[in-house]
Amino acid sequence: METLNVVLKLNEIICHDEGDGWGSAEPYLWAIFFKIDGLSVWQNGVMLGGEADFKFSHGSHNNLPNHDVDPGEVVQIPAPVGEWSAILKPIEIDDFQGNIIEVPGIVGAVAVLMEEDNVSDDGAEAGHQGLNNHVRDSINNFISSINLLDFVNSDDPAEDLQQKIDDLIKLIKDNVESVVKDAITSNQNWLEDLWAWINKDDKIGDVVWTYRSTEIIENSYNISLNERWENEGDWEINGEISASELCPANAVNNLSVRDLNQKLDLSKLRTFRHTLYKEFPLATNWWIIALKNGPFIMRELQKNKNLCNDVFQIIKNIEASIDSKDRFSEGFFDDISMVLDKFGKSNFKSLRMASRRLKPIIQDLRGKNLNEVLDHLSSCKPLVQVKQ
């Protein structure tokens, strides 16, 4: 099974009816992202060991850019609240007969949309932390409860696992309201409790999405997320799961074969990668940025066939330069600059930032061949943070 580079992104909240009587609504969003995969979960005898990986959204009251929302308005969800990227790897299981079975990694998101009234800021954040703890404990208890013998002896292991996941989702959803309420009331004084009791913050709605890596691949590496709640008004949330193969060259090649009927020379590109790591180790900081933004790049290429062709041609030019000392043409750098302009308008903040900060470097690379380009990139650090 493929190891995927995955991004979960909640894009926007649409207010069809604010439902708050006189005045505007003040929505805020709690989001929890998680994955259960082979990087953090492993076989421990007949059970599973390890825990899920989580990303908890930032803030409660006022964590969305619009605090006075009326019908017809669309609220964009900022990255610290609604975006997470992660590597999703299969879990390897020994079937007790010497065979290794790969179980697809699972990625998921929990979204709870709230509307601010009289709960204090500290009370709301206490509810937020209570929700985080509830989801984390529920998912980790789910992992530790799995007995692998149940699946080895099952007629349909995938369906049995899905039933357990469905039970987990029901457990999380059934307890959201009580967990949040208990956390708020236990962290407010009696006067704040009284004020909140008169007009407490309202839960507009909640949703839990989970997908296996195989489902993401079957959906061409992109799945739309949507939920609508006709409660406390009429609200809708939209998002997406975007993914790519871990190797950007493989990902672009598969997409170009499918959409352009053209393919890359992967053996040459592997040679280039090895050269990069061996001869120009400092230049790999730029490569790491490309890896980090892989799912964002692939999503933009999936949406725009012309952009996909532009990137394909740039890579083909790099291919042709691997065994050559010829300088790149001016047109080559013009094409890169044009692609960066388009990436700079992406909905994905990380890709926008990386593209806008990389573009000024292009001017310094003009008139150089491949080795000279790599040598120059080795001498200047990226302006975006690189984590290795």
Describe the overall structure:
The protein is an alpha+beta fold and 388 residues long. It has two domains: 4-244, no CATH class; 247-379, no CATH class. Helices cover 47% and strands 24% of the residues. It has 14 helices and 13 strands. It has helices at residues 79-82, 121-145, 148-152, 157-185, 190-198, 213-218, 248-260, 266-279, 284-292, 294-303, 305-321, 330-343, 349-365, 370-379, and strands at 4-17, 27-36, 41-44, 47-50, 53-56, 74-76, 83-88, 91-94, 100-103, 106-115, 202-212, 222-229, 234-245. Strands 1, 6, 7, 12 and 13 form a five-stranded antiparallel beta sheet that branches. α2 (121-145) packs antiparallel against α4, α7 packs across α11 and α10 crosses α11. The longest helix is centred in the middle third of the chain and has 29 residues, at 157-185. Mean pLDDT is 88; it is low at 194-198.
Describe this protein with a few key phrases.
388 residues; 14 helices; 4-stranded antiparallel sheet; 47% helix; alpha+beta; 5-stranded antiparallel sheet; 13 strands
